[in-house]
Give the backbone structure.
Amino acid sequence: MRGPLIGLLMTLAPLALVAWGIWAFRHRLADPERAADPGRVAGPAGPSPAASLLERTSTSAGVGLAADLARWVTAGLISSEQADSIRAPERAAAAARPPAVERRVSLIAEALGYVGTALALAGAAVGLSQAWDDIPAWGRLATAAGATALLLLGGFLLLRQTEPAFRRLQSVLWFLAVGAGAWFLAVLGVEYLGLRDDERLVLLVGAGCAVLSGLLWAVRRLALQHTAFFVSLLAALVGALLCLPGDAPIWAYAGAVWALSVGWGLLGWFRVVEPWWLGIALGSAGAVIGPSIGIGEYPWLLAVGLATSAFLMVVSVPTGQVPLLAVGTMGTFGYLTWAVTRYFSDSLGVPLTLAIVGGVFIVLAVVAGRLTQATRGRRRRSRRRPAAG
């Protein structure tokens, strides 16, 4: 009984400490003056730094506008009535402008917090791995469930925070919560559902993580939640194929990953998923990597990979999407290198094969450079057109 409790405490204690630190630091930042002077009695206070900054900014902008209006009236460009009609809405807009958000957490403090959290979690993982065999099934399940719950709770505590550092921390906590959820589902499937060495375990973990990450992504559409959702969908898709009756050929897995990635990239292209740029990037990378899954047994997948990579390179020019160019270039280089090495290494020899691969890389570098210049030229021309009009 002592071993399971020690393992449970070694896992949950660091997470609980992190959650308490988040709660305490959040309340400290909510009233920095009270944190600096606990004995201070609440009362009328002067303007906050953000309000003072807004007041100075508004005042300087107002003085500049007043000087411009006076000069224009003197020069006869506008009348006094026109100057008054301009001045009134500008004052109203300045008064309604929200205060500037002030950074209260330095990047150094944020980085140190992440390092400390990583060390605490690493220590808990090492200690837990040493006592894992002595922990009964219910203790393993409770450990995984507790870790998932604490990570989710830590993210929900930061849900209403506007501080950028807290928003990033919330995203990291929820990303880790999806990983902890996968751990919980794996323990559940192995210990209680009898899915050890079973294809259904992949489907259980993938589908469960897809549901969890999808809900978290719906609440806060940040990059890490987007990534977790996409990866979970891929895992669920592979698990579903594994559970089909009979053995599906490897090209089916490659085609499924390719199709899902293409669809996801299109959703990002049409701004259906957010962040849309990450949807395009993940979809493009998955579409390029997908055919490589079964290219060893089905060489015709080489044509799919090369066609996808070339398509991304071509589309990047008129759209100005440099990430598409980068993904397409790397995919083209990888598939061409594989083809040269597989089909010509025996007949040409290793030195000549390496020389050909190097030449292919140089050609791709030149092509990428030309396409990048074309993309930049197109952007410049598009920016000049409104000015010329």
